[in-house]
Design a protein that fits this description.
The protein is an alpha/beta fold and about 375 residues long. About 30% of the residues lie in helices and about 20% in strands.
Length: about 375
């Protein structure tokens, strides 16, 4: 399994970004394990889907950001999916502690939670909200880094699309500080610069999601994706040109992405071998979490391993926990959210499901542990 880039916990992961910036600001209780310059104010711009390998391969489309590739990449964690990565960033903890363990995962009532909507997973007409039945603050009760920073006297702000206000994922991963809803690149840049120019200690988190969107729809490396990357490069140039003294901006990502081949796909709904003994199918096409019927674990793992062959790796959830994929700690309340069997795909392979017609039709995916999905850049300006 030499293609697997497993998470490690050496202080240079996505979960370490916000604590490290606060450490560089000298805020008590935080330590800089990444090595940011000393600063008074700091901001993180997270570009959804901007993998380290993708930025390096398309340096001509983003020459300024590519010129900042001077530090080793960070590891996103597992699975390499937005909901997990944003919660890792926001809490400073790995999935085994914060509990948002995948794109979809088992929830207490016996179904699957879709954290982006904080509702049950299924076809659109069958989904129902779980905001009251399983509140985000209950599912993820640990204080976020933003809450801890605000309690320490830091001026904390989040500059994210205004429709994210009050969503389940925002409440679970990024609660704390002042919400500053934005609509486009212009007000995103303005909010980041306003926080960076604040008089006292300030921390701002900003999010841009369109590169990931175009990567999913058209494929990473496609012309629409490359043109979007160029626009983001210009955004970072603008931020650099207006960066105040004693301020640090860190540009990071939540995961990378790979282009998928529709011919290189398994169908979990029509293949009898992939249905036998399966109670729930969670995760996403590149990283499936399989919840099995009682007593079916050995048979399901063996059958999935034989069916998928060398196009991926199939292990038990317990083995993934033992190997540290979900972090050094997996809480008692989190273990049941992790699949009994995990199917992690390599190259361009995916496992589709008719329950996810939109996701299954996408041209770009992530979630697995290839370097293209696991490694994310950390681009540092200022200080």
């Amino acid at each position: 399994m030499d293609w697997i880039v497993a998470p490690d916990h050496d202080g240079r992961a996505l979960a370490d970004v916000l604590p490290s910036l606060l450490g560089a600001m000298g805020v008590a209780g935080f330590v800089d394990t990444i090595g940011f310059p000393t600063c008074r104010t700091a901001a993180v711009l997270l570009v959804d889907g901007l993998g380290h390998d993708l930025l390096r391969e398309h340096a001509a489309d983003a020459p300024f950001m590519a010129s900042l590739l001077t530090s080793p990449p960070l590891k996103a964690g597992f699975p390499t999916t937005t909901v997990t990565s944003l919660t890792s960033l926001g809490t400073g903890r790995c999935a085994g502690e914060h509990g948002v363990v995948g794109y979809t995962f088992a929830e207490p009532s016996g179904g699957l939670l879709h954290p982006l909507s904080w509702g049950t997973h299924g076809t659109t007409g069958n989904r129902r909200s779980l905001l009251e039945q399983w509140p985000p603050e209950q599912a993820q009760p640990t204080a976020t880094v933003l809450e801890r920073a605000a309690a320490a006297g830091v001026d904390v702000r989040t500059a994210v699309p205004r429709e994210f206000r009050g969503t389940g994922l925002t409440r679970a991963a990024l609660r704390g500080g002042e919400f500053r809803g934005v609509s486009a690149l212009g007000d995103l840049a303005a909010e980041l610069l306003a926080a960076l120019g604040a008089g006292g200690p300030a921390l701002c988190y900003g999010y841009h999601g369109h590169l990931d969107l175009l990567g999913h729809v058209h494929g990473p490396g496609s012309l629409p994706w490359r043109l979007q990357l160029t626009q983001i490069d210009r955004l970072v140039v603008t931020l650099a040109e207006h960066l105040p003294p004693s301020a640090v901006l860190a540009v990071v990502a939540d995961h990378g992405m790979v282009a998928v081949d529709p011919a290189d796909a398994f169908d979990a709904d029509t293949d009898p071998a992939l249905r036998a003994g399966v109670r729930l199918l969670g995760g996403e096409p590149r990283a499936r979490q399989v919840y099995v019927e009682p007593g079916a674990l050995v048979d399901v793992q063996a059958t999935w391993s034989e069916t998928i062959g060398d196009r991926g790796v199939v292990i038990t959830g317990q083995q993934a926990i033992d190997d540290g994929w979900f972090g050094p700690v997996v809480g008692d309340g989190v273990r049941g959210r992790i699949g009994d069997v995990l199917a992690i795909m390599r190259d361009s392979a995916v496992i589709r499901s008719a329950v996810e017609p939109g996701e299954s039709a996408l041209r770009g995916h992530h979630g697995s542990l290839t370097s293209a999905e696991q490694l994310v850049p950390v681009l540092v300006l200022g200080g």
